[in-house]
Amino acid sequence: MTPIVVGQLIDFAYLAAAVLFILSLRWLSSPATARHGVLAGEIGAALAVTATLFNPALAQYKWIVIALIVGAALGVPLGLVKMTAVPQRTALSHAFGALSASMIGIAEYYVRAPHVTKFGMVEIALEVIIGSLTFTGSLIAAGKLQEILPQRPIVYRGQNIVSLSVLGAAAVIAIILTIHPEYMRLFPAMVGVALLFGILLVTPIGGADMPTVISLLNSYAGLSAALLGFVLDSKVLVVAGALDGSSGFILSVIMCKAMNRSFTNVMFGAFGQVQVHAKAATEERTVRSANAEEAAAILSAASKVAIVPGYGMAVAQAQHKVRELYDVLTKKGIDVKFGIHPVAGRMPGHMNVLLAEADIPYDRLIEMDDMNSDLPQTDVALIIGANDVTNPAARTDQSSPIYGMPIIDVDKAQTVMVIKRSMSPGFAGIDNPLYYMDKTLMLFGDAKAFVGDIVRELASGHHS
Amino acid sequence: MPADFISNLFVFILAGFVGFEVIKRVSPLLHTPLMSLTNALDAIVVVAAIIIAGLHETTLSTVLGAIAVAASFSNMVGGFLITDRMLRMFKSGKPKKS
Predict the structure, then answer these.
(1) For residue A114, is the peptide bond before it cis, meaning its omega torsion is within 30 degrees of 0?
(2) For residue A233, is pLDDT > 90?
(3) Which of A59, A101, A152, A395 is packed most tightly, with the most Cβ within 10 A?
(4) Are B89 and A75 inside 8 Å of each other by CB?
(5) How far is CA B16 from CA A239, A424, B11, B26, in A?
(6) A90 and B39 in contact by Cβ < 8 A?
(7) pLDDT tens figures, B74-90
(8) In whole angstroms, what is the distance from residue B58 CA to residue A128 CA?
């Protein structure tokens, strides 16, 4: 076969891969077909990679083979992490994707320079800047999620001005490089400044905002891959990047809506710093608490129970104990549902994955709106490690920083039980009036241990 | 403006629309696997990395290309693996047909 024919065959393989990628995402629309989606994606990727290896322009394979082996050796353990580590794994994979895209952009620049067209330079600069800032930004996000770095927002005076000037500096260097391609020494400076901006961008953002940040970084990683497709005139990269970018974008919009906040507010608002001491301890309010035995008695008298999990359930690794609770209650003929807030946890869909891992059937996992229409007819709402997403101040208190945020209306249930370590304010430091309501019982303790105690009480048979 | 830019822009806009239509149908149940799957698909940049590493134009481009191959291939392998693991966990409560 002539090299031209081989080239055309490779292009057809890329086209087939692009189609399979679209089918892959289409089949993800329902859990019943989702695994076909993974298979379609795998076939598409395998086809594209294999075809590329037949590219007649390849001069030597040594480094390709070594790098593929290293990649597989890194990828397998990253694919086998525990489900509780999925948020940080995801952030890390955004970092790897962005690293790869910027490395290729940088390599392409040095192959062409200084004979880069003005248009080509704009494309490369944009691609490398977005790739680099996504790389460091995602590393910081992964560090926060792994709790190597503090999860609290880190802020200082004039922060936004400093961050935006750094981004501005990267843009100015890119413009100079476009006008004067011979100033090749400026290129590493541009990369360095973009890397710095990624750090500055994510460091001030708190853990509770991670679902939005991860989605946004997902979108940037996709955008950098699509831009690389422009640089290299590779349609399959443009398609895959556009799919990844639009997915990240849609998720970011969903996350922002679920917090009633704008992109700019998430990125530059440093949520949770203000208002911490504003109204704490103004009056002595009483809370009612209960022990596991009392909680078990109330649960066994119920006919409908709604469980609302949050990040605290993930931290305490309580999902398997929650599953036991689900089993015991279901066996007693009690209807148990799980109310899932879109931003519960640290990434989109986090709670669903943890509960599915614990073998809870997915048709018991109910989205916020459906849960809310069910809650007034619910006997007991049991909150495990969730705070802000159940805070009725979001509906009633205009001065609350979360006012307007859609919440799961647990306060509409007949009885509310909250498993919580102590009365200390939640992550964002916002007071939760739910805890002081007459119908609320506080169950103080570790989520995993407390749920375990309730299960033991229920199983011991005193409450039938 | 080069001609290939226009054709790439066509593809980008159309793929963006397709992505939007397809992804908004994905159940919120599966948003975490969605993210890991798109990550694995995005790792298709490995094909560009293979070319850069294999053309062997300069030592620098070969080294950067090899790093890119390793980083994106790990995303591809790990992304598909974890997506499949997650999806296997999602079970319906209804009795199985068998």
Answers:
(1) yes
(2) yes
(3) A101
(4) no
(5) 8, 45, 8, 16
(6) yes
(7) 999 999 999 999 999 99
(8) 19
